[in-house]
Design brief:
The chain is of the alpha+beta class and 413 residues long. 30% of the residues lie in helices and 28% in strands. The protein is globular, with a radius of gyration of 20 Å.
Length: 413
């Protein structure tokens, strides 16, 4: 079969790598891809958001399956457009992608379906948001301030004071720091506990859980500094009630969209907080996680291409085959990320030795690999234990110790 992967980050590099190693896959195409993806897939010279050109390119090459990586094209309706032409698409419709595209919509859905989550309120008015924040803080309830729309994983602010919280709300609603994504702000109670990334492959009526992972969102060691798109991940994670979590946080979403006449087909990723009072949903994503995908796919056996094709066709899903080995993924970022950082910086040798180096913010300039984004490479290493996998990942990461790079030193510690 021929597969087209849409996206150009480390998550998509991992997907292309896994699909290219499938016994049933003849060719993998990618748009827009990156220099790492180009080594194992054919890059198509079309714009991701030119749906007509993208669809024509897929039809010309007789693509059997389209896999959408990032949320932006999903929220723009790419799955609806390409699905209407008869190509099986692994990725939810625009109606379903609202679950990530609008945090306010997601919170309303959770409330309606009885899905455990944090107390919240949504605002489009800065004075009303400020008043609510002051009221919550005066009652001893610290809050999280979130841009409701797509903010590339950086729209959640965990303030340490009421002043920081109101400033975060003003940044979104008054100073327009997140653009359209911050026109509506969700203010919710701050949950404490351990985070868990739960990713499911969905066929519209049913789902299969992939191995759970835990990601590290803060930029600095010991969970310090601002939130990022993710600085690393580990898998496996000890979750004794995994099936129960799926029935609590995935099943109700599928049933809701099925009732609405828009079956959810694609990846569904509830980000959970395991609190003292039980697991609660922090947010939903309409795609695979990044960097969780880079950590989970190396542990996955079986034929991923067939699983995703069956999901896209609404067919019965096979049970995932999971390795007993552990995987640790460490994100190498440009120094300064998630704030200002330099680009076009020459990279050290990226040849992997016993690990996977999945490219994200990497471009080619005059035959040389250079940085082009905040998160540059995800280093994923396998081992019989998390400790062994950590050792391998960090041995590779040392090549970034000299230069304008940053990575957390405590992933999986």
């Amino acid at each position: 079969m021929r597969v087209l992967v849409v996206g150009g980050g480390a998550r998509e590099h991992a997907l292309v790598w896994k699909l290219a190693n499938s016994a049933t896959v003849e060719t993998v195409y990618a748009v827009p891809g990156n220099p790492g993806i180009e080594q194992i897939a054919e890059i198509l010279p079309v714009d991701v958001f030119d749906f007509f050109a993208l669809n024509d390119a897929a039809m010309e090459r007789r693509v059997d399956l389209v896999v959408i990586g990032p949320e932006k094209p999903l929220c723009a309706g790419i799955a609806d457009f390409m699905g209407h032409t008869g190509i099986p698409v692994f990725g939810p419709s625009q109606a379903c992608a609202q679950i990530e595209g609008s945090k306010a919509f997601a919170k309303q859905l959770m409330a309606a379906e009885g899905i455990p989550t944090a107390r919240y309120a949504a605002f489009t008015s800065a004075p009303e948001a400020r008043a609510y924040i002051h009221a919550e803080w005066s009652e001893g309830r610290p809050v999280v301030v979130k841009a409701s729309g797509e903010a590339l994983g950086k729209g959640a602010v965990l303030p340490e004071s009421v002043e920081q919280a109101t400033d975060a709300a003003d940044g979104m609603l008054v100073r327009n720091e997140f653009g359209e994504a911050g026109r509506t702000v969700v203010v919710e109670e701050r949950l404490t506990g351990r985070e868990l990334s739960l990713m499911a492959v969905c066929n519209g009526r049913d789902y299969r859980l992939l191995p759970p992972a835990r990601d590290y969102k803060k930029v600095g060691d010991d969970d310090t500094g601002p939130n990022t798109g993710g600085m690393g991940a580990v898998s496996p994670v000890d979750v004794p009630n995994l099936d129960e979590l799926g029935e609590t946080f995935v099943r109700p979403v599928l049933e809701r969209f099925l009732r609405d006449g828009t079956p959810y087909v694609g990846a569904l990723y509830p980000g959970l907080m395991l609190t003292d009072s039980g697991p609660k949903c922090l947010e939903y994503n309409c795609r695979f996680g990044d960097p969780e995908t880079q950590c989970v796919l190396p542990r996955l056996g079986g034929d991923l291409a067939q699983m995703l094709l069956r999901a896209a066709r609404g067919e019965e899903l096979p049970r995932p085959v999971v390795s007993a080995e552990a995987c640790v993924s460490v994100v190498i970022a440009s120094k300064g990320y998630p704030g200002h950082f330099d680009k076009l910086v020459p990279l050290p040798d990226l040849e992997a030795d016993g690990v996977n180096a999945f490219f994200a913010g990497v471009s080619e300039l005059n035959g040389e690999l250079v940085s082009s984004g905040g998160r540059v490479v995800t280093v994923s290493a396998m081992g019989s234990t998390i400790a062994e996998a950590r050792e391998k990942a960090y041995a590779y990461a040392k090549r970034f110790d000299n230069g304008p790079w940053h990575y957390r030193r405590d992933i999986g510690a």
